[in-house]
Specification:
- By secondary structure, the chain is of the alpha+beta class.
- It has seven helices and 14 strands.
- It has helices at about 5-30, 50-60, 100, 175-185, 195-205, 220-235, 270-285, and strands at about 70-75, 90-95, 110-115, 120-125, 130-135, 140-145, 150-155, 165-170, 190, 210-215, 220, 240, 255, 260-265.
- It has a seven-stranded mixed β-sheet with strand order 1-2-3-4-5-6-7, sandwiched between helices.
- Helix 1 (about 5-30) packs antiparallel against helix 2 (about 50-60), helix 4 (about 175-185) crosses helix 7 (about 270-285) and helix 5 (about 195-205) packs parallel to helix 6 (about 220-235).
- It is globular, with a radius of gyration of 18 Å.
Protein backbone atom coordinates (compact mmCIF):
# COMPACT_ATOMS: atom_id res chain seq x y z
CA UNK A 1 0.00 0.00 0.00
CA UNK A 2 1.35 3.42 -0.95
CA UNK A 3 1.50 6.43 1.38
CA UNK A 4 -1.29 8.06 -0.66
CA UNK A 5 -3.54 5.02 -0.26
CA UNK A 6 -2.88 4.94 3.48
CA UNK A 7 -3.72 8.62 3.84
CA UNK A 8 -6.93 8.21 1.80
CA UNK A 9 -8.00 5.30 4.02
CA UNK A 10 -7.32 7.36 7.16
CA UNK A 11 -9.16 10.27 5.57
CA UNK A 12 -12.25 8.14 4.97
CA UNK A 13 -12.31 7.00 8.60
CA UNK A 14 -11.81 10.57 9.81
CA UNK A 15 -14.71 11.82 7.66
CA UNK A 16 -16.99 9.24 9.23
CA UNK A 17 -15.91 10.27 12.72
CA UNK A 18 -16.40 13.92 11.77
CA UNK A 19 -20.00 13.31 10.70
CA UNK A 20 -20.74 11.43 13.91
CA UNK A 21 -19.29 14.18 16.08
CA UNK A 22 -21.11 16.85 14.06
CA UNK A 23 -24.42 15.11 14.78
CA UNK A 24 -23.64 15.13 18.51
CA UNK A 25 -22.87 18.87 18.46
CA UNK A 26 -25.94 19.65 16.38
CA UNK A 27 -28.17 17.70 18.78
CA UNK A 28 -26.89 19.75 21.73
CA UNK A 29 -27.24 22.91 19.65
CA UNK A 30 -30.94 22.12 19.10
CA UNK A 31 -31.39 21.64 22.83
CA UNK A 32 -31.36 17.84 23.00
CA UNK A 33 -29.25 17.78 26.16
CA UNK A 34 -28.16 20.02 29.01
CA UNK A 35 -25.26 22.24 27.88
CA UNK A 36 -23.94 22.75 31.45
CA UNK A 37 -21.78 25.70 30.45
CA UNK A 38 -18.62 26.13 32.53
CA UNK A 39 -17.48 29.75 32.22
CA UNK A 40 -14.52 29.29 34.57
CA UNK A 41 -12.15 27.59 32.12
CA UNK A 42 -9.23 30.00 31.58
CA UNK A 43 -9.24 29.61 27.78
CA UNK A 44 -12.97 30.27 27.50
CA UNK A 45 -16.24 28.50 28.15
CA UNK A 46 -16.59 24.74 27.83
CA UNK A 47 -19.86 22.91 27.43
CA UNK A 48 -21.21 19.40 27.78
CA UNK A 49 -21.28 19.37 23.97
CA UNK A 50 -17.48 19.86 23.81
CA UNK A 51 -16.96 16.99 26.22
CA UNK A 52 -19.44 14.62 24.52
CA UNK A 53 -18.03 15.27 21.04
CA UNK A 54 -14.46 14.95 22.30
CA UNK A 55 -15.20 11.64 24.00
CA UNK A 56 -16.86 10.29 20.84
CA UNK A 57 -13.95 11.37 18.60
CA UNK A 58 -11.32 9.87 20.91
CA UNK A 59 -13.21 6.58 21.32
CA UNK A 60 -13.72 6.20 17.59
CA UNK A 61 -10.16 7.06 16.61
CA UNK A 62 -8.44 5.14 19.41
CA UNK A 63 -10.41 2.05 18.41
CA UNK A 64 -8.63 2.11 15.04
CA UNK A 65 -5.42 4.04 15.73
CA UNK A 66 -3.93 2.71 19.00
CA UNK A 67 -2.16 4.95 21.47
CA UNK A 68 1.06 2.93 21.32
CA UNK A 69 1.56 4.32 17.79
CA UNK A 70 -0.57 7.48 17.66
CA UNK A 71 -0.53 10.45 20.00
CA UNK A 72 -3.65 12.45 20.85
CA UNK A 73 -3.64 16.21 21.40
CA UNK A 74 -7.12 17.49 22.20
CA UNK A 75 -8.30 20.83 23.51
CA UNK A 76 -10.36 19.12 26.21
CA UNK A 77 -7.66 16.70 27.40
CA UNK A 78 -4.39 18.59 26.83
CA UNK A 79 -2.07 18.80 29.82
CA UNK A 80 1.56 19.75 30.27
CA UNK A 81 4.10 21.56 28.11
CA UNK A 82 6.05 18.68 26.56
CA UNK A 83 5.57 17.50 22.98
CA UNK A 84 3.74 14.20 22.61
CA UNK A 85 6.56 11.70 21.87
CA UNK A 86 5.02 10.24 18.70
CA UNK A 87 5.61 10.87 15.00
CA UNK A 88 1.88 10.61 14.28
CA UNK A 89 -0.35 12.83 16.44
CA UNK A 90 -4.08 13.49 16.20
CA UNK A 91 -4.89 17.14 16.90
CA UNK A 92 -8.54 17.65 17.82
CA UNK A 93 -10.85 20.56 18.57
CA UNK A 94 -14.26 19.02 19.27
CA UNK A 95 -15.97 22.44 19.26
CA UNK A 96 -14.27 25.40 17.62
CA UNK A 97 -16.23 28.57 18.31
CA UNK A 98 -17.81 27.67 21.64
CA UNK A 99 -19.06 31.22 22.14
CA UNK A 100 -20.81 31.09 18.77
CA UNK A 101 -22.31 27.76 19.78
CA UNK A 102 -23.64 29.17 23.05
CA UNK A 103 -24.87 32.37 21.37
CA UNK A 104 -26.63 30.34 18.65
CA UNK A 105 -24.98 32.04 15.66
CA UNK A 106 -24.58 28.66 13.95
CA UNK A 107 -20.96 29.58 13.17
CA UNK A 108 -19.19 26.82 15.05
CA UNK A 109 -17.07 23.97 13.71
CA UNK A 110 -15.12 20.89 14.73
CA UNK A 111 -11.57 20.06 13.67
CA UNK A 112 -9.77 16.74 13.40
CA UNK A 113 -6.24 16.57 11.99
CA UNK A 114 -3.54 13.93 11.86
CA UNK A 115 -0.04 15.38 11.89
CA UNK A 116 3.22 13.64 11.04
CA UNK A 117 6.33 15.09 12.69
CA UNK A 118 4.53 18.38 13.32
CA UNK A 119 2.86 18.87 9.92
CA UNK A 120 -0.78 18.04 9.05
CA UNK A 121 -1.35 15.08 6.70
CA UNK A 122 -5.11 14.43 7.04
CA UNK A 123 -7.78 16.94 8.03
CA UNK A 124 -11.51 17.25 8.51
CA UNK A 125 -13.35 20.47 9.31
CA UNK A 126 -17.07 20.01 9.93
CA UNK A 127 -19.57 22.87 9.90
CA UNK A 128 -22.55 21.13 11.53
CA UNK A 129 -25.21 23.78 10.94
CA UNK A 130 -24.28 24.00 7.24
CA UNK A 131 -24.32 20.18 7.10
CA UNK A 132 -20.94 20.20 5.38
CA UNK A 133 -17.59 18.55 5.92
CA UNK A 134 -14.41 19.81 4.28
CA UNK A 135 -11.66 17.22 4.12
CA UNK A 136 -8.18 16.78 2.71
CA UNK A 137 -5.14 14.56 2.78
CA UNK A 138 -1.65 15.63 1.82
CA UNK A 139 -1.21 15.75 -1.94
CA UNK A 140 -4.78 14.69 -2.74
CA UNK A 141 -6.69 17.99 -2.83
CA UNK A 142 -9.61 19.28 -0.77
CA UNK A 143 -13.23 18.16 -1.05
CA UNK A 144 -16.55 19.20 0.46
CA UNK A 145 -19.15 16.61 1.38
CA UNK A 146 -22.79 17.45 2.08
CA UNK A 147 -25.24 15.52 4.25
CA UNK A 148 -26.72 13.75 1.19
CA UNK A 149 -23.32 12.21 0.48
CA UNK A 150 -22.45 14.41 -2.48
CA UNK A 151 -18.69 15.03 -2.74
CA UNK A 152 -17.24 17.96 -4.70
CA UNK A 153 -13.63 19.07 -5.16
CA UNK A 154 -13.16 22.64 -3.97
CA UNK A 155 -10.60 25.38 -4.67
CA UNK A 156 -9.87 28.89 -3.40
CA UNK A 157 -10.70 32.02 -5.37
CA UNK A 158 -8.63 33.35 -8.27
CA UNK A 159 -8.61 36.95 -7.00
CA UNK A 160 -5.01 38.10 -7.30
CA UNK A 161 -4.75 41.80 -6.36
CA UNK A 162 -4.56 42.97 -2.76
CA UNK A 163 -7.20 45.64 -3.38
CA UNK A 164 -9.65 42.95 -4.62
CA UNK A 165 -9.30 40.63 -1.61
CA UNK A 166 -11.79 40.07 1.19
CA UNK A 167 -10.65 39.58 4.77
CA UNK A 168 -12.62 37.31 7.10
CA UNK A 169 -12.47 38.24 10.79
CA UNK A 170 -14.33 37.61 14.02
CA UNK A 171 -16.96 40.05 15.20
CA UNK A 172 -15.07 40.29 18.49
CA UNK A 173 -11.64 39.17 19.82
CA UNK A 174 -9.73 42.08 18.29
CA UNK A 175 -7.34 44.16 20.38
CA UNK A 176 -6.19 47.63 19.28
CA UNK A 177 -3.05 46.33 17.54
CA UNK A 178 -5.00 43.81 15.47
CA UNK A 179 -7.65 46.39 14.63
CA UNK A 180 -4.98 48.83 13.47
CA UNK A 181 -3.42 46.13 11.27
CA UNK A 182 -6.61 45.14 9.48
CA UNK A 183 -7.64 48.76 8.99
CA UNK A 184 -4.27 49.57 7.38
CA UNK A 185 -4.27 46.66 4.92
CA UNK A 186 -5.31 47.84 1.43
CA UNK A 187 -8.11 45.29 0.96
CA UNK A 188 -11.54 45.30 -0.68
CA UNK A 189 -13.67 44.62 2.40
CA UNK A 190 -14.18 42.58 5.54
CA UNK A 191 -16.67 39.84 6.25
CA UNK A 192 -17.46 38.43 9.67
CA UNK A 193 -17.58 34.79 10.75
CA UNK A 194 -17.18 32.78 13.94
CA UNK A 195 -14.69 29.93 14.51
CA UNK A 196 -11.41 29.42 12.68
CA UNK A 197 -12.83 26.47 10.77
CA UNK A 198 -15.77 28.60 9.70
CA UNK A 199 -13.46 31.38 8.55
CA UNK A 200 -11.25 29.07 6.49
CA UNK A 201 -14.36 27.51 4.94
CA UNK A 202 -15.23 30.97 3.54
CA UNK A 203 -11.90 30.96 1.67
CA UNK A 204 -12.85 27.60 0.16
CA UNK A 205 -16.32 28.91 -0.74
CA UNK A 206 -14.64 31.96 -2.36
CA UNK A 207 -16.52 34.52 -0.25
CA UNK A 208 -13.23 35.59 1.37
CA UNK A 209 -9.54 35.40 0.53
CA UNK A 210 -7.59 36.17 3.73
CA UNK A 211 -7.63 35.21 7.40
CA UNK A 212 -5.14 36.63 9.91
CA UNK A 213 -4.34 35.53 13.45
CA UNK A 214 -2.41 37.99 15.60
CA UNK A 215 -1.55 36.99 19.14
CA UNK A 216 -1.91 39.48 21.97
CA UNK A 217 -2.17 38.48 25.61
CA UNK A 218 -3.09 35.03 24.38
CA UNK A 219 -2.68 33.10 21.15
CA UNK A 220 -4.57 30.56 19.09
CA UNK A 221 -3.69 26.93 19.74
CA UNK A 222 -2.54 23.96 17.64
CA UNK A 223 -6.08 22.57 17.44
CA UNK A 224 -7.39 25.86 16.05
CA UNK A 225 -5.16 25.64 12.98
CA UNK A 226 -3.99 22.10 12.16
CA UNK A 227 -7.12 20.93 10.30
CA UNK A 228 -8.04 24.32 8.76
CA UNK A 229 -4.48 24.72 7.46
CA UNK A 230 -4.53 21.51 5.43
CA UNK A 231 -8.00 21.99 3.93
CA UNK A 232 -6.84 25.44 2.80
CA UNK A 233 -3.44 24.50 1.39
CA UNK A 234 -4.78 21.44 -0.43
CA UNK A 235 -7.38 23.76 -2.03
CA UNK A 236 -4.59 25.95 -3.40
CA UNK A 237 -4.16 28.42 -0.54
CA UNK A 238 -1.26 29.21 1.76
CA UNK A 239 -1.02 29.41 5.57
CA UNK A 240 2.23 30.65 7.14
CA UNK A 241 3.77 32.94 9.69
CA UNK A 242 4.18 36.49 8.38
CA UNK A 243 7.84 35.74 7.59
CA UNK A 244 6.83 32.77 5.45
CA UNK A 245 7.78 30.07 7.97
CA UNK A 246 5.44 27.07 8.14
CA UNK A 247 3.34 26.32 11.20
CA UNK A 248 4.73 23.49 13.30
CA UNK A 249 2.45 21.52 15.62
CA UNK A 250 3.06 19.45 18.77
CA UNK A 251 6.04 21.52 19.90
CA UNK A 252 5.07 21.37 23.57
CA UNK A 253 3.73 24.92 23.80
CA UNK A 254 0.42 24.54 21.94
CA UNK A 255 0.08 28.31 21.48
CA UNK A 256 0.79 29.68 18.00
CA UNK A 257 2.32 33.06 18.77
CA UNK A 258 2.85 35.93 16.35
CA UNK A 259 1.17 36.95 13.13
CA UNK A 260 -0.11 34.08 11.01
CA UNK A 261 -1.63 34.63 7.60
CA UNK A 262 -3.91 32.36 5.59
CA UNK A 263 -4.78 33.34 2.04
CA UNK A 264 -5.90 32.11 -1.36
CA UNK A 265 -2.18 32.10 -2.17
CA UNK A 266 -2.14 34.48 -5.13
CA UNK A 267 -0.80 37.50 -3.21
CA UNK A 268 0.52 35.68 -0.16
CA UNK A 269 4.10 36.97 -0.17
CA UNK A 270 3.00 40.55 -0.86
CA UNK A 271 0.39 40.30 1.88
CA UNK A 272 2.95 38.99 4.38
CA UNK A 273 5.37 41.80 3.50
CA UNK A 274 2.63 44.41 3.84
CA UNK A 275 1.55 43.05 7.24
CA UNK A 276 5.16 43.02 8.46
CA UNK A 277 5.64 46.67 7.47
CA UNK A 278 2.35 47.78 9.04
CA UNK A 279 3.07 45.97 12.32
CA UNK A 280 6.53 47.54 12.47
CA UNK A 281 4.97 51.00 12.11
CA UNK A 282 2.33 50.22 14.74
CA UNK A 283 4.91 48.88 17.19
CA UNK A 284 7.29 51.80 16.67
CA UNK A 285 4.56 54.30 17.36
Amino acid sequence: MTQTQKLEEIEAITRSVGWGAAKILSAYYRGEGDLKVNEDKKDGPVTAADIAANQYILEQLQGVFPEDTFGYLSEETHEGTEPIPKDWVWIIDPLDGTRDFIDKTGEYALHIALAYQGRPMVAVVAIPEAEKIYYASKGNGTFVETADGKVTPIKVSERNKLEDLYLVVSRTHRDDRFQALIEALPLKDRIYMGSVGGKISTLLEKTSDIYISLSGKSAAKDWDFAAPELILTEAGGKFTHENGDPLIYNRGDVRQWGCLIASNGHCHEALCAEATQILAKIDNG
